[in-house]
TrEMBL record:
Residues 115-236 form the TonB-dependent receptor plug domain. One of its GO terms (cellular component) is cell outer membrane. This is TonB-dependent receptor. Transmembrane segments: none annotated. Belongs to the TonB-dependent receptor family. Residues 377-865 form the TonB-dependent receptor-like beta-barrel domain. The lineage of its organism: Bacteria, Pseudomonadati, Bacteroidota, Cytophagia, Cytophagales. It is a multi-pass membrane protein. PANTHER family: PTHR47234, SECRETIN_TONB SHORT N-TERMINAL DOMAIN-CONTAINING PROTEIN. Keywords: Cell outer membrane, Membrane, Receptor, Signal, TonB box, Transmembrane, Transmembrane beta strand, Transport. It is found in: Cell outer membrane.
Length: 908
């Protein structure tokens, strides 16, 4: 296969010939106002590009007679033949329809738009949307405008409170590849492990990119393993950074929930400056925001039991499930609290969004050289995030976790985060004859450190600190790419060829915390080697036990890849594309993935398209080497310590847990695009994604499926201070089926313009009934892959999401109305809770913008205007009634009201 690929590449290379380049100087203007359009994109065949400066002027070197493509967000795209004089003016007509914009992802040809690609691609004009929409970070913006994308903030879930997991087409966060300017973005160092969506996966933190730095986001809703990386099973998200020059844009947003919490103050800025006379630029962005916590707990009713002979009280949230009168119980509670000099705040729970402090800087640089034949480029940034969330409240009724001299009434620990995210990409593009070469290096690092506060190490009793440095983890990725592209006009109706290679090195680290954060000082080792805890006191910092030296690890691997990607216009109406990618991992061997796609233009307004592809995702370093003991709800409904252990550990081997292997996938898609008029368009795409040997977390070994301890396994776990153990396994095969629909319409209404988008995703993931379970574990299917884990894959994300957005602009006013329907979700509380379905909900967003001046606008609006909440949780699933709402669908904060100001200034 490798011989065939190289023969094909060399044959194509032999077709290249040098052509005389013509320097073109042009200007891009608004067709209605004749005002310049700074930042407009100019693309030529083979990937050559330029951007218009503040005067709308651009310079580009292209072949004589070539056709260039000119586009700008909010305007209809034009294809313009280059005149022999090399001078031209391009007038773009305004239009919110972005379907004509040239797309970068999904095709390495420079002439593909949303409607004529062979696979579905969404183009989301973030620079326009973020001025008026209520959402304030990338994850939330995409959730409310892209039906196939879903992200939701989590509560009381350790690190997952601070980095939001996200999904494309219902698959896992680690099955979507994220690019910036077409270059691979690193993942985080966080492995989600607290029973939220994406449990056991590692995602990419899109919120580490400032919204003010983004021009648009392209979402390729199709498998792209053969094109961009074998792990792109669900698709690709490509973030395109701004290129505008000689302009300063400032934005300020403030807001508050209807409950009076969750206050937001967000400031961002973007500045672009032209460099040289050949279209070079430096674009800088900065963003900072403060988001206060929210609290959505059940009523804090208490029942206090006098246990004066032991010196403490029992305290429980009021259940109200046995016919007790809530008002009467509250009155009794108040009397008992008053007698003891206590107040309700001494027993309050905090459940909601974590408090976040976030600072971001980003840069995008381009420096053309060699009379337009070459370009040096660089981009990257730094993000710092400090978060403060809450763990489960420790009640004074559990003496094993208490230090009564420090917290006589119990305590609710806090989980603090310090997250540093760094990235830098640099490269050179150069035209070699008719080939465009691109050599780049992309470096990324994510570091996450934990601090646990308002807590104790019970085994130290009164000598315990109340704040602990609990250690952390880090992930570093360095990627080198060498790519070649060429468009050949003499083959059929045009052939675009791309090929290249990639080398990627990765490192994952876990750092131990201070000794008091992880050690149990009450453990005793017997002469026979067994370990006992005669005091019965819990060790480590309660809520989040620190990483111990046994968890500390440094692991590395590398990956090398070769690919070829071709697109052939067999005729003007028939496009065929094929791609192949060979990859070799130092830890998981070799794989070859392919993709074949086609688009047939039945008429000028009707296209049919379809694709078949394969994928391969090697287990992440996190999944291979993560180990940790943490506090969670055990199978019997009480709090306890459970451990995550590597598959190569003695414990895993003793239980018969097999070593990890790669996931493989097959993707099928079939769809159509329809555009009978310039005002209306429709795309419909069906898909089926089959994933074999999908990596998931097991259930809790140490207990049977119904919560009863298994003594033999408990004995194995005792030296690790854990009550139960989880492992990663290739336990299941899944099939995902779905349908994407996107409909757009725009028309003049009165003296204004109405734009409408109706989009929907219908999606279902099913786990095969037959598990990939080793023979020695047969009979433990509900532990090997628990019903709870099944629910996190099959039903925790909405199976339907429908978005209707209407925007009306007239004069200085713009009004927007959006209704998003989030379908029902089901959570499985197995084995100690109940299965509960949360009904579908409609969230209504509104905003009204007014241009006070030509360069100043004010926007007032609301997210979730009607204050819609998820269904109230069943008592059995709510930790004694504390967790009134689960963070499902659209979250649990209710209405959020905001005020935003945008200011733009031309800067010379």
């Amino acid at each position: 296969m490798k011989t065939v690929l190289f023969t094909f590449i060399l044959t194509l290379a032999g077709l290249s010939a040098y052509a005389q380049l013509l320097e073109v100087r042009g200007r891009v203007v608004d067709a209605t106002t004749n005002q310049p359009l700074p930042g407009a994109n100019i693309l030529a065949n083979g990937g050559k590009g330029a951007a218009a400066n503040a005067d709308g002027v651009f310079t580009i070197r292209v072949n004589a007679g070539e056709t260039i493509t000119v586009s700008s967000i909010g305007y209809d795209t034009q294809r313009v033949p280059v005149p022999a004089t090399g001078e031209l003016t391009v007038s773009l007509k305004p239009g919110e329809n972005v379907l004509d914009n040239v797309v970068v992802v999904g095709s390495r040809s420079t002439s593909r738009t949303v409607l004529n690609t062979a696979v579905p691609v969404d183009v989301l004009p973030i620079r326009t949307l973020q001025r008026t929409l209520p959402q304030n970070d990338v994850n939330q913006l995409l959730t409310y405008v892209a039906p196939s994308f879903q992200s939701n903030r989590q509560s009381s879930s350790d690190g997952t409170e601070h980095i939001d997991p996200a999904s494309l087409r219902g698959l896992g966060p680690d099955q979507t590849l994220v690019l910036i300017n077409g270059k691979r973005r690193h993942t985080t160092s966080l492995l989600n492990n607290q029973g939220t969506f994406g449990n056991g996966t590692v995602g990419t933190d899109l919120n580490a990119i400032p919204v003010s730095a983004i021009d648009r986001v392209e979402i390729l809703r199709d498998g792209a393993s053969a094109q961009y990386g074998s792990d792109a099973i669900a698709g690709v998200i490509n973030v395109i950074l701004k290129k505008n020059t000689n302009q300063l844009e400032l934005q300020g947003t403030t807001g508050l929930t209807q409950e009076g919490d969750g206050g937001l103050l967000r400031l961002n800025a973007n500045y672009g400056r032209g460099l040289g006379k050949n279209g070079g630029f430096l674009n800088l962005s900065a963003e900072g925001y403060i988001r206060d916590r929210t609290n959505r707990t059940q009523n804090h009713d208490l029942i206090i039991f006098d246990q004066s002979n032991e010196g403490y009280f029992f305290a429980y949230p009021f259940a109200g499930e046995n016919g007790a009168d809530a008002a009467q119980s509250r009155a009794i509670d108040d009397r008992i609290l008053q007698e003891r000099g206590l107040k309700r705040d001494d027993f309050n729970f905090q459940v909601g969004d974590a408090r976040i402090r976030n600072a971001n800087v980003f840069a995008n640089l381009s420096l053309p050289f060699g009379n337009g034949k070459g370009e040096f480029y660089a981009f990257g940034g730094y993000n710092y995030r400090n978060g403060n969330g809450f763990g489960f409240r420790r009640l004074p009724s559990d003496p094993s976790q208490m230090v009564y001299s420090l917290f006589p009434n119990g305590f609710q620990p806090t989980t603090g985060s310090d997250i540093h995210d760094r990235s830098l990409a640099a490269g050179v593009k150069y035209r070699l004859g008719q080939w465009q070469m691109d050599l780049s290096n992309t470096l990324g690092n994510n570091r996450f450190d934990y601090t646990v506060g308002n807590t104790v190490n019970a085994s130290l009793q009164e000598r315990s600190p109340t704040s602990f440095e609990a250690g952390g983890h880090a992930f570093t990725q360095n990627t080198v790419n060498l790519d070649f592209t060429r468009y050949i006009t003499t083959v059929a109706s045009g052939l675009n060829v791309a090929f290249g290679g990639e080398f990627r090195a990765e490192q994952y680290r876990i750092r131990a915390g201070q000794e008091e954060s992880w050690r149990n000082y009450g453990l005793v080792t017997n002469p026979n080697g067994t370990v006992e805890n005669p005091t019965g006191l819990a060790g480590g910092s309660q809520s989040f036990i620190g990483f111990s030296p046994n968890n500390a690890v440094t692991a590395s691997r590398s990956n090398a890849a070769l690919y070829v990607d071709t697109e052939l216009d067999v005729t003007r109406r028939w496009l065929v594309s094929a791609a192949g990618r060979f990859e070799n991992y130092t830890d998981f061997g070799s794989t070859f993935n392919y993709k074949v796609a086609s688009r047939l233009s039945v008429t000028d307004w009707l296209n049919l398209r379809g694709a078949i592809s394969t994928g391969f995702r090697a287990p992440s370093l996190h999944q291979q080497y993560f180990s940790y003991v943490s506090t969670t709800i055990l199978a019997n409904g009480r709090l306890g310590n459970t451990g995550f252990f590597p598959n190569q550990s003695p414990l895993a081997q003793a239980l018969g847990i097999p070593e990890l292997k790669q996931e493989t996938s097959q993707n099928y898609s079939l769809g159509l695009t329809l555009r009978p008029t310039s005002r209306f368009s429709l795309s419909v795409d069906a898909y089926r994604i089959r994933v074999k040997d999908r990596i998931v977390l097991t259930g809790l070994f140490g207990y049977d499926p119904f919560g009863e301890p298994v003594p033999a396994i408990q004995t194995l776990l005792a030296p690790f201070e854990a009550d139960g153990a989880r492992f990663f396994t290739n336990a299941i095969n899944t099939t995902t089926r779905g349908l994407d629909v996107v409909m757009t319409y725009n028309a003049p209404v009165g003296t204004g313009t109405l734009n409408g988008i109706l989009s929907a995703n219908f999606n279902e993931t099913k786990v095969d009934d037959q598990f990939n379970i080793p023979a020695q574990l047969r009979g433990q299917e509900d532990v090997f892959f628990s019903p709870n884990e099944r629910g996190l894959i099959e039903t925790v994300n909405p199976r339907q999401k429908v978005n209707l957005t209407l925007t009306y602009s007239i004069g200085k006013w713009t009004a927007a109305l959006a209704n998003v329907y989030f379908g029902a979700v089901t959570r499985n509380g197995f084995p100690f809770g109940v299965i509960q379905t949360f009904g579908g909900k409609v969230v209504t967003d509104v905003s009204l913008s007014y241009n006070v001046l030509n360069n100043l606008s004010i926007t007032l609006g609301a997210n979730n205007l009607l204050n819609v909440y998820p269904d109230v949780q069943a008592y059995e699933n709510s930790y004694f009634g504390v967790f009134k709402y689960a963070p499902v669908q659209m979250g649990m904060n209710g209405a959020f009201y905001f005020l935003r100001a945008n200011y733009r200034l031309a800067v010379r």
